[in-house]
Design goal:
Oligomer: single chain
Order of helices and strands: EEHHHHHHEHHEHHEEEEHH
Structural class: alpha/beta
Radius of gyration: 21 Å
Shape: elongated
Number of helices: 12
Largest sheet: 6 strands, mixed
Strand order of the largest sheet: 5-4-3-6-7-8
Amino acid sequence: MGRVGDVTAAESGGSVVRRILLGSQLRRLRETRGITREAAGYSIRASESKISRMELGRVSFKARDIEDLLTLYGVADEGERAALLGLAREANVAGWWHSFGDVLPGWFQTYIGLEGAASLIRIYEVQFVHGLLQTEAYAHAVVTRGQPDAPCAEVERRVALRLERQKVLVSERAPRFHAILDEAALRRPYGDRAVMQGQLRHLIEISEQPNITLQVMPFSFGGHAGESGAFTMLSFPESDLSDVVFLEQLTSALYLDKGEEVGQYERVMARLQEDSPGPEESRDVLRGLLQLI
């Protein structure tokens, strides 16, 4: 994957994960000592909500704040302190996507970081082809439809961001990517006939990559487990980080990581995978749809 400045997308994606890991460790240390968020905030001249955001990994970290919190939490071992301070430095690495801040909502930046750090990405999509699988022409049509009043320059920036995200699938540390596309996403036209033909051919081709599994949930199956709509599941190589379910909304997103909630999506994904035709049969579905356009 290409570099943006001196940081690869994989490294900057990892910074989001490190931020979350550091936050969870700080929360564990605070709770072990029986210290309230309010008291912790007071010790670093900040509010209770600031401590909450730190523990959720939603803000950057200042070395002085981490040092003061570690002292408050009774962490005296120099090795442990150095490890956590090093994690804080790594967590503050700016992601490549920050250069797209003019067209990238703040709530989506966290997702891109997690996406770039995941070792397994599983998605179910019903409205359109998932962003990581879109051709440039199809992405242009999707963005134009979704942002009809956007200037041409903004549309191009949004498309460029989407194409930059796709590099994660061909990077040295490419994740396994398992996509289940509802037939509705493939039949709903975005762009003209040539755009849709190009998109279907791209799906057939990219589904042959060893790290990518693509299945199509056909109309003929009838009702299925994905009744709640599109979702993404992210798994990480770090054992301390739980799986995350990402649910995108119009102006924000939900990140679910509680075991019970993630487990429900895990079961839905397993049923979708079991009920959908396999990868080769799904390519046949794609070829059939291509002939109909």
